[in-house]
Write a structure and sequence with these properties.
The structure is a single chain. By secondary structure, this protein is an alpha+beta fold. The chain contains 12 helices and 24 strands. A 4-stranded antiparallel sheet has the order 4-13-9-11, covered by helices on one side. A hairpin with a 2-residue loop joins strand 6 (about 55-60) and strand 7 (about 65). Helix 5 (about 175-215) runs antiparallel to helix 12 (about 380-420) and helix 10 (about 340-350) packs across helix 12.
């Protein structure tokens, strides 16, 4: 954060009280005071009919949404003749029940008052507090999570009524320092939201291109093609252009250090980093182990790895590997023939709904022959190169935006830990 935006923070070097955060804005030295939330907020309990004309909203963990948007159209079964709680612009509301003690407080940022269930409390900050400061604390503080967990009085759900919420005690600085902190996180949240929207838009764009540039079911050519390409795409099975290879047992007896052949585990599918990050997170197998165990790595060919059981159903995350590697026996590896374009092959898997080919049982699982029998359409090698390059650039752009978003979220978490008590 820059001093030009008045968002400079400095570390306290000599504190006279323990009731201070590690990082503060310049010029603030007073200790934070413990206050009951009830002294910092004021409740609004205005009941109004659903036929009043104000839109009905839903307070969720993802935010405050108009019901017609949240439910993709007007929700059925709502009696608009009953009373709702009115949430004026700028006021806060929350769903008063939770299955896991987590509550999300949402501010009405629409240009109009909205209506929520009359069971949902509605309040705002008073003259003693900054609303953004309170929001960021309530939605992120481990102390508040501990407090909300204690509200469970039996049964499976936790209920947090406003009368109980007011008893919550938090440490708060002066109003001016609250305002500075609230402004900082409001700007940071806005930036994160903008990056998330860009990322979501790019992913939607990619899905649109996948549907246009690859032939759909029953089609022999794509709807959109690069110039100078004609003719039908070749119909074949994945087994015609590659093969499934099963993994090996995990080499837990000896380690290869940080040299040798990388060994990928099924948990690698949860790793959203690049290949280098995957390698540094895993074991390496040395030449002696390879020779003694007669392990044969996948030799420098494009490949996609996924779990045989369970995880791929939930995640379906694929990793392209272009260097020799081993993988554990909980995974299967589809290896493309070298005659096909690497980037085209990776993108081809993005068009396949793998969970549709899983065998359903106690745990969903994959059979290698089922994967190899999946029917696909293949273009000429030159057209593959054009398509592969296009989607590689698009994927790189998506990865760049994802990286920026992840860094912003990490920055927010770091500041939360250091600027709050």
């Amino acid at each position: 954060m820059t001093s030009e935006n008045n968002l400079y923070v400095e570390k306290n070097k000599a504190e006279v009280s323990k009731n201070v955060p590690e990082l503060r804005f310049q010029g603030f030295i007073d200790a934070w005071e413990q206050r009951k939330l009830g002294t910092l907020v004021e409740e609004l309990n205005e009941n109004i009919s659903g036929v009043s004309g104000f839109p009905i909203a839903t307070s969720s963990r993802k935010g405050l949404f108009l019901q017609k948007e949240y439910f993709s159209g007007e929700r059925t079964g709502i009696d608009k003749n009953i009373n709702f709680h009115k949430v004026p612009v700028g006021y806060i509301t929350y769903r008063h029940m939770s299955d896991d003690s987590i509550f999300k407080f949402n501010k009405n940022s629409f240009e109009t008052p909205v209506l929520v269930s009359k069971e949902y409390p509605v309040f705002k900050s008073n003259s003693n507090s900054d609303q953004e400061f309170l929001l960021i604390h309530l939605n992120n503080s481990p102390l508040f999570l501990k407090f909300s967990t204690m509200q469970k009085l039996g049964g499976t759900r936790v209920r947090l009524y406003f009368k109980n919420l007011k008893t919550y005690e938090l440490y708060a600085p002066t109003f001016e320092e609250q305002k500075q902190i609230g402004t900082l996180f409001s700007l940071l949240n806005h930036t994160i939201t903008l990056h998330q929207r860009k990322l979501d838009k790019l992913k939607l764009i990619k899905q649109g291109y996948l549907q246009q540039i690859f032939p759909q079911k029953g089609e022999k050519v794509p709807r959109v093609r690069f110039t100078n390409f004609e003719g039908d795409w070749k119909q074949c099975k994945l087994g015609d252009i590659g093969s499934i290879q099963s993994g090996i047992g995990f080499p837990d007896s000896e380690q290869g250090g940080r040299e040798g052949t990388p060994f990928f585990k099924v948990s690698d599918m949860n790793n959203t980093g690049n290949e280098h990050e995957m390698k540094t997170a895993n074991n390496y197998v040395n030449k002696e182990q390879l020779k003694r165990m007669r392990w044969k790595p996948n030799e420098g060919v494009p490949a996609v790895i996924f779990a045989k059981v369970g995880a791929a159903i939930m995640l379906n995350r694929k990793r392209i590997i272009c260097t020799p590697f081993l993988n554990d026996n909980n995974t299967m590896t589809y290896v493309f023939d070298k005659s096909w374009n690497i980037d085209f092959g990776k993108t081809l898997f993005d068009t396949i709904n793998l969970p549709r080919f899983a065998q359903i049982g106690a745990l969903p699982s994959y059979n290698g022959s089922d994967i190899e029998n999946i029917k696909v359409s293949i273009s000429s090698k030159y057209e593959q190169t054009q398509i592969g390059s296009f989607f590689k650039n698009l994927d790189n752009t998506i990865t760049l935006h994802q990286s920026k978003l992840d860094k912003l979220k990490l920055l927010k978490q770091a500041l939360l830990q250091k600027m709050f008590m």
